[in-house]
Amino acid sequence: MNRKKKVIVAMSGGVDSSVAAVLLKEQGHEVIGVIMRIWGGDGPMEEGGRHACYGPGEEEDIDDARRVAGRLEIPFHVFDLREDYRATVLDYTRLEYLSGRTPNPCIRCNQMVKLGGLLEKVRDSGLIFDHVATGHYARVKYDGERQRYLLMKARDLEKDQSYGLYSLSQEQLGICLFPLGGHTKQEVRERAVDAGLEVSDKIESQDFMAGGHARLFEAAARPGPILDHQGRTIGEHRGIPFYTIGQRRGLGLPSSEPFYVMDIDQTRNAVIVGTKAKLYKSACTASGLNWISIKELEDPIEVKAKIRYRHEEAGVTIAPLEDDRVRVHFEKPQMAITPGQAIVFYDDDVIVGGGTIELG
């Protein structure tokens, strides 16, 4: 991006998006800071939720972002997306948990709110921009041979967030900038100190569920049976939204061998448990595919796959099915393949595409 552009920076009040703004301004671009107001006062909240990306500490984050914008002498705007966030993220998340699935609120927010509804609000306000930048650790480039925008891992693999961006469209990738993609977290904090930003040592915000947000769904949760793999009742759970496949803690089951959640049966409002060995599966189906490095999947291909953010990549073969689905076969059985979670396919540093896990 050689020509100087007008860039909207989606700020959060944290160090990453603040340094993204610093780097873009240093490059000579016209930078405009924007931030979303999404907290709707939902509760009850656990103590840690104050530092989550969605929580009651939002006004402090907005004030931090405003101070950063003032320090950088860039315009700053706050946009109200509370209704958008509730309809797009909260309602979806609530329904997914109540159906026994484990959703990815952050992935949905990135695609439909931060790089969707927010930009609509910005355009409706009359602000003109060429690109939108965020503080995500990822990279994007245009491949002239494929005539497609490619989403790639960040240089700092410990901070790489490409997994959470797999659902972005070609149109979205075409206007996205990720200034931190070539930097390490330590470098980013050092740049914040050099720029005199007060947020240089601010703690990182927790993700949606780490803030204690399972309690948002407490009113709709119903206690039910915990069953072993033979269908025998061996305990009681407090509501299926509080459980996910692979979970060990919080089951309250006396046993010489630890039990893990193997499955969640919405129809019976039951949590099924078993030993760790029974958690391993060799295949799954994925739906709702978004392809990035290819236009579509026509024939089986061998790639790497991640079945959750911190999962170690595993070798897989993916084959197309009908109805926008693929069948995924793992070279080695994987533990706790979880319906509702994202499965993202990689070819070295490049994201091929991804979708939502469906077992069966």
Total count of helical runs of at least 4 residues: 6
Share in helix: 10-25%
Task: Round the Cα radius of gyration to an integer and report it.
Answer: 21 Å
Structural class: alpha/beta
Poorly predicted regions are: none
What does the overall shape look like?
A: globular
Report the end-to-end length measured between terminal Cα atoms: 45 Å
Beta-strand content estimate: 25-35%
Q: Identify the strand order in the major beta sheet.
A: 12-15-14-13-16-17
Report mean pLDDT, rounded to a whole number: 92
Order of helices and strands: EHEHEHHEEEHEHEEEEEEEEEE
Provide an overview of this structure:
The protein has 360 residues and is α/β, with parallel strands linked by helices. Helix content is 22%, strand content 29%. The chain has six helices and 17 strands. Strands 12-15-14-13-16-17 form a six-stranded antiparallel barrel. The chain has a five-stranded parallel β-sheet with strand order 3-2-1-4-7, with helices on both faces. β16 and β17 form a beta hairpin. α1 runs parallel beside α2, α1 crosses α6 and α3 runs antiparallel to α4. The chain is globular, with a radius of gyration of 21 Å. The N and C termini lie far apart (45 Å).
Q: How would you briefly describe this protein structure?
A:
The chain has 360 residues and is of the alpha/beta class. 22% of the residues lie in helices and 29% in strands. The chain has helices at 15-26, 58-72, 82-98, 105-124, 170-175, 185-194; strands at residues 6-10, 30-37, 76-80, 131-133, 139-143, 148-152, 176-177, 224-227, 233-237, 260-265, 270-274, 280-291, 301-306, 314-321, 325-335, 342-347, 350-358.
